[in-house]
């Protein structure tokens, strides 16, 4: 839909290259893609308003910025951030954007387990099997749980993520919160590189891609912070 809309408005064939892909049912509150076009006014507010007028209601373009000709939305990214949402009080308005899990969870123990994630590790234990990647090693820069009333929010930031990785981490963390396994068990599961030892993946509806970072020199000088 985005490619068709941009192609029609630019009067040229536009191919959209996204920063990555997520599991079916996962949301993107923030996403980046790049295109190549001969037009020079795509970053104007009026053009963005027109694009949004033709897109489906579940997709919105917030901004368009110019980048260097060889910039790549996926390969130039230096970090990505995900949030996972759990609600523990039944709320029909959250059913498509959060995991309803009414069992009390010990977030203090879950945050203890988060310490094991930090740094560079092999995350095979939390990856979908038989994926086409060269390595399962990722660098986790931040990870933690916070409580907001009846909602729990998990935030994780890394240089890259494997297929199903965040959902598998959350599903295993919930076992820690329910005191079925210890934070030490969580570390041993991660070190084992055995997906069969980790917990079931958390449902996709609670997961949001919320941030992607790029080096400043990817952007044209006008857009550098």
What does this structure look like?
With 225 residues, the protein is of the alpha+beta class. The chain has 2 domains: 2-74, Alpha-Beta Plaits, CATH 3.30.70; 79-210, Alpha-Beta Plaits (2-Layer Sandwich), CATH 3.30.70. It has helices at residues 2-10, 45-54, 107-117, 165-177, 183-192; strands at 17-18, 27-28, 33-34, 79-87, 99-100, 119-122, 137-148, 151-158, 207-213. Strands 2, 4, 5, 6, 7, 8 and 9 form a 7-stranded mixed beta sheet that branches. The longest helix is centred in the C-terminal third of the chain and has 13 residues, at 165-177. It is globular, with a radius of gyration of 20 Å.
List the helices and strands and how they pair.
Layout: H1 2-10, E1 17-18, E2 27-28, E3 33-34, H2 45-54, E4 79-87, E5 99-100, H3 107-117, E6 119-122, E7 137-148, E8 151-158, H4 165-177, H5 183-192, E9 207-213
Parallel strand pairs: 2-9, 4-5
Antiparallel strand pairs: 1-3, 4-8, 4-9, 6-7, 7-8
